[in-house]
Amino acid sequence: MGETDSSSKSNRWSLQGMTALVTGGSKGIGYAIVKELAELGATVHTCSRNQTELNESLNEWTTKGYRVTGSVCDITSRVNREELIATVSSQFNGKLNILVSNSFNSIAWS
After folding, report:
1. Nearest to 56 by CA among 40, 44, 68, 73
2. Which end of the chain has the smaller Cβ count within 10 Å, N or C?
3. pLDDT tens digits, one per residue of 42-85
4. Domain ranges in the chain?
């Protein structure tokens, strides 16, 4: 059947080998984005200001077999952003394919 075959469609949406950073990923829209990216095969790092919520989310994702890591970070803090980027750069060997800045605060990433 060629391109209409269902396996072709699923392969088209694969994110295998891709890396992603999603800020604010422990709840709400950020949580849904992390889940979707992980389900599509991406390796995801997320951050949250709340350690408890982050741990709960990470436990859920680990149970499902998703490749998701996380760290506590307040992205309104320049120092925290620099630490986050260093962490992600180290984990992903300098390769970041997808950045989702899921924050209600307007920040500059510089």
Report:
1. 68
2. C
3. 999 999 999 999 999 999 999 999 999 999 999 999 999 999 99
4. 14-100
